[in-house]
Amino acid sequence: MAQYKVTFLPEGKAVIATSEDTLLDAARLAGVYVSSLCGGDMICGKCRVVVKEGQVFEEQHMLLSREEVRSGYALACASHPRSDVVVEIPIESRMEGKQIVVDEDAQRFSGLAKVDLAKYEFEHAPLIEKIYLEIPPPSLEDSLSDLSRLFRAIRTHVDVPIMQTGLKNIRRLPQILRRGDWNITCTLGQRGGTVEVIEIEEGDTSNRNYGVAIDVGTTTVVVHLIDLKASRILATDATYNSQITFGEDVITRLIYAKEEVGGRERLHEAIIGNINMMINNTTAAAGVNLQHVTCALCAGNTTMMHFLLDLDSSNIRREPYIPAATNVPPVRAVEVGIQINPRGLLYGVPGVSSYVGGDITSGVLASGIYRAPELSMLIDVGTNGEIVIGNNEWLVCCSASAGPAFEGGEVKFGMRATHGAIERVKVLEGGELVETVVIANEKPRGICGSGLIDIISELRHVGVIDRTAKFAEPGYCSRLRRTDDGIEFVLAYADDTAIGRDIVLTQPDIDNLIRSKAAVFAGASVLIKSVNLRFSDLERVYIAGGFGNYLDLHGAIAIGLLPDVPLEKVKFIGNSSLNGAKLAILSREASLELENIAQKMTYIDLSSNLKFMEEYSSAMFLPHTNLELFPSVT
Questions:
Q1: Domain formed by 128-202, architecture
Q2: Which residue in 122, 251, 541, 602 has a CA-CA distance of 20 to 30 Å to 462?
Q3: pLDDT digits (tens, 9 = 90+) for 88-143
Q4: How far lies 92's CA from each of 116, 420, 445, in Å?
């Protein structure tokens, strides 16, 4: 099999690839990111590259225009090297800086915030606790073994019937006790109803007790290093989930894990690599020894937790959608490859189903809707569109598969919320004037989810699109024009963009966004009707997640994405998954509450719900077929 050198610009990285490899495969080998929402299935058309030197064979597809082909563009997922090649990744296909929501307590990565458990009414009792013991030495009258003597001393501080420790600790115990003159510090970990002695140290080290709270997101991963004794965030870090190179949504990655040889292992290694890098970064920044980090607590959707733990995820996407586990007992962090104290424990936040995971359970904890008497809704607007409705008596939840449009997928110039993405849009003068806000104040190279919601709302407001979300006839305004591919609206002209091409919105782009918003609203409608209530009964609506943090409420309601409730009832809660994880790592009470919440939630499967398609069809209009549901939208 022929082998060729593939060089990627502007990074200058090079790898050896075979003639059967695609340029996307080569980019993965080189550790170079190329946008690929579909994971390389020749569907999304986002992996555009420019072949600067050499020859490639490109499989047949219809995703590039004639102009792009003449300019040397090719799809990385469809192109195979036939000689040594030099490939440039254009700016629209790169992943650069992103607006990552860490949380409300540690904006701008200040790392100085204190977690206030009092406002959540949780006792400060970390999952991992260090206690200093002054143990009476043995005598002829008191001749207990060293291990029994240790357990007896611990029980004077902790009321627990069952204790255990590992063989390595038992082997070290006699020397540590005597070298420390019987004054030692024990690190105790909670494992269900059992307390485990994780570490034994000479002297008093009880002030050095650290853990990491981790949000394992599909797009980004966030780590907080926490002083468990002081309830203080010492350092934070965030990065893209490296699994993105294998697919940008969970379904694509599930397929990759199942169908690619070694796929599951590569997905596992990618997320573990991210986590270890950030643990190293945060401990170095805070001056903390890794040996003193004895606890990691992870919150993530069900698929991400399967990849983290290297579980078989093949049944998640196939009816009847059964995960390997939704609540995994604590395990040694080293068993999955997380590099903290070798005897440190890894905890996972329990999930509910294949498509409502621990990130949502954690969000319910952080929002407090499970203990409030009034009716509330929690919604994480994204690819999966998870929704929870309830109060202190009951909780129902669902996952509405919204697709990748909110993340910039299935949109011609769609992109994630990175540098150069249009995130805010205002349309004036009947469509003749477009004002935009671009992330990092750069020239635009595409439009992200919040910008897409804005533009749909604005175009409807000025009449460029109608209630069926269809364009007016070209000539309505100068920016609305007909091309060989159909009607499009010009958001930014080529001279004003970073990519040297007009950034446009097409009718298929609008259709994809309408389908996404309809899925979310239909899911919420089915959920609230399942308990014989109406949106007007909601006292509070919590918007969670990174995308929600940049959402314009007026626009989201105007297009029928969110229910039309008074704006004062809506609260943005940022990274609620991470916030809930921090509460749980600092309080055994909060950790137990997570298990209660997961058991309390009733999952409504929309795929088998006969009313979902009826609600979905009704929501395919702007804002809805039933305008009485949206009294504030004119």
A1: Roll (3.10)
A2: 541
A3: 998 888 765 444 444 443 333 333 456 777 677 899 999 999 999 999 999 999 99
A4: 42, 9, 6
